[in-house]
Design brief:
The complex is a heterodimer of chains A (313) and B (265). Chain A has 313 residues and is α/β, with parallel strands linked by helices. Chain A contains 14 helices and eight strands. Chain A is globular. In chain A, 54% of the residues are buried. By secondary structure, chain B is of the alpha/beta class. Chain B starts with 19 loop residues before the first helix and ends with a helix. The chains are: A alpha/beta (313), B alpha/beta (265). At the A-B interface, helix 7, helix 8, helix 9, helix 10 and helix 11 of A face helix 4, helix 5, helix 6, helix 7 and helix 8 of B.
Chain lengths: 313, 265
């Protein structure tokens, strides 16, 4: 697998190599990581590596949104509720300072122990969660705050109440709100980017993925249950629909891969946060100087042209 | 679904049986109990539009196989089979038309083509329909019947949600109108994107409109589902759609909306 992704990484690599040693000791580490990513992309990820990503993306010790909030943002103030009907703990929103500027953060949030997992519904938002996200988006638009969106959701919640509260429409309107914004939006998949629940908050100017995150249209188990008629065939399904970061980069769905600590983000949350913070800051900087209208137009063009269909035959 | 398939002309609700010409004459609605049979895209267009007014666009677009997807069978084989059985190149037909002399753009889905699933070509066709409507200054009428995103195109099928959402936003920014008609079933990725973003949302009676289908909800949560779970009637009661329109009244209703949005043009 070569192509654009490889070119992009090679360019990044050569840029780093030619940098004077201002960043000090960390630089050699970056070089090594980029070289590793490049090797991985050039040699297409194997089925085993894809499944390892699925497992790491779901690892119970993987840092969640609030772990990154605590390490990356100052003056964090969480916004609660959709101010309409309820407060959904599976999707957090808030204001914070990130490297000197006020941002609005959106993020899916899973729980660490049984009690918190239940309270946060295993990270699966209800329509109320998307309502909260939309309220925060409007706030960001009104005040010109950039939006950072961290994606980590197994999928939209398959429940009776979620449907009665209008899940489909909520996911559609949340995307529409993002498509309307004139402020920079950067999204990063930090674990599971599961289907409609993920895309609801991922219609962004820059979309990133952590090295071991996955981004899927349906869970591997769901896909296996439908196409193989056996949820146990999830490995086969994952290998077939290629949800890993390298493939998503190759397909043009994401703009860059955010490196993780060598053995995965769960082994060193501080280092994972530093790497994520750098990537988010770099993405935000790349959007500086664009007018609001430009941002909005280019954001829509980005999604208009992803995975362009082949020319008429 | 259990076992043998009933005859396609037999009403699954009351068992009444019809000849082909009888069903066509009743717009594929059971005259005994009002059950709405599924309607193919071509027939739907005939039902809705003025005679000979429909001009198809982008008919030559075909999907390829970006992931070289293989489940129990290769995706390319499923595509070829769907084209053979439906006579359509993809799960959506778009074009320009007139309804009671009101000009409009149409985007009509075909459930028979891989469950009306939305892959890159459906997303592209819907986007072009939005662009055509904006260029010509006419409303877009979409008729959806779909199981959701096309899994065989992996993450690229999920990307059709934001793509079609952006297309609707562009249409709205241009002052355009989207009238969304939801037929059975309109679920998952299409419900969670353009179908829910119409200026007006109408549904056919008994249509399933849920992000997640009843079987999956039942299996995952083991909740007892209400009898009308996810149906148009439940969605109407919960305030998610504007109106339920029986098929015999659909053409007249859409025409009335087209006249209202034309606002004395």
């Amino acid at each position: 697998m070569a192509g654009e992704a490889e070119l992009r990484l090679r360019e990044q690599l050569s840029r780093l190599r030619s940098l004077p040693l201002l960043r000090g000791a960390k630089l050699s580490g970056e070089l090594e990581r980029l070289q590793k990513q490049l090797d991985r992309i050039v040699s297409e990820p194997s089925d085993e590596e894809i499944w390892r990503s699925v497992e790491l993306a779901r690892h119970p010790d993987r840092p969640y949104t609030l772990d990154y909030v605590e390490r990356l943002f100052d003056d964090w103030f969480e916004l609660h509720g959709d101010h309409h009907h309820g407060d959904d703990a599976a999707l957090v929103a808030g204001l914070g300072r990130f490297r000197g500027r006020t941002i609005v953060l959106l993020g899916n949030q899973k729980g660490r122990d049984v009690k918190e997992r239940t309270r946060r519904n295993f990270g699966m938002a209800y329509p109320e969660g998307y309502g909260k996200a939309m309220r925060a988006m409007e706030l960001a638009g009104r005040h010109g705050f950039p939006i950072l969106s961290l994606i980590d959701i197994p999928g939209a919640y398959p429940g009776v109440t979620a449907e009665q509260h209008g899940q489909g429409g909520a996911i559609a309107r949340s995307q529409a709100e993002l498509a309307r914004l004139r402020v920079p939006v950067v999204a990063c998949v930090i674990g599971e980017g599961g289907s409609g629940g993920a895309i609801a908050t991922a219609l962004a100017d820059r979309v990133l993925m952590q090295e071991n995150a996955i981004y899927t249209v349906i869970s591997p188990e769901g896909c296996a249950a439908i196409l193989w008629r056996d949820a146990g065939e999830a490995r086969k399904a994952a290998a077939a629909f290629k949800p890993d970061a390298a493939h998503c980069l190759e397909l043009g769905v994401i703009d860059a891969i955010v490196p993780e600590p060598a053995e995965g983000a769960h082994t060193d949350a501080d280092e994972a946060a530093r790497l994520l913070g750098d990537a988010l800051a770099e993405s935000l900087e790349s959007l500086d100087g664009h007018s609001g209208d430009d941002l909005r137009r280019q954001r829509r063009v980005r999604f208009r042209t992803i995975g362009q269909v082949p020319a008429t035959r | 679904m259990d076992g043998g398939k009933p005859h396609p002309n037999t009403c699954p609700r009351c068992g009444s049986h019809y000849r082909d010409d009888e069903l066509a004459a009743s717009l594929h609605v059971c005259t005994q109990c009002g059950y709405h049979f599924p309607v193919h895209a071509r027939e739907r267009i005939l039902q809705l539009t003025d005679e000979d007014s429909f001009v198809e666009e982008a008919a030559d677009l075909r999907s390829d196989d970006p992931l070289e997807f293989f489940d129990l069978r290769p995706y390319t084989e499923r595509l070829a089979e769907a084209e053979l059985s439906t006579g359509l190149g993809e799960a959506m037909v778009i074009g320009r038309a007139a309804i009671e002399e009101e000009p409009c753009q149409l985007a009509v889905m075909e459930f028979g083509f891989m469950g009306g699933s939305m892959g890159r070509v459906v997303g592209e066709k819907f986007t072009r329909a939005c662009e055509g409507a904006a260029e010509r200054g006419v409303p877009l009428v979409s008729v959806t019947t779909t199981g959701g995103a096309r899994m065989q195109e992996g993450i690229l099928s999920l990307m059709q949600l934001p793509k079609t959402v952006c297309a609707v936003e562009d249409l709205h920014d241009a002052g355009g109108t989207l009238i969304s008609v939801m037929a059975h079933p309109t679920t998952a990725g299409v419900l969670a994107s353009f179908a829910s973003l119409g200026d007006v949302l109408v549904a056919e009676p008994g249509a399933l409109l849920s992000f997640t289908g009843p079987r999956v909800v039942q299996q995952t949560t083991r909740e007892k589902l209400p009898d009308d779970f996810g149906l148009a009637e439940a969605n109407y009661r919960h305030g998610h759609i504007d109106e339920i329109v029986p098929r015999p009244e659909l053409r007249g209703t859409v025409a009335r909306l087209l006249r209202l949005f034309a606002n004395g043009r």
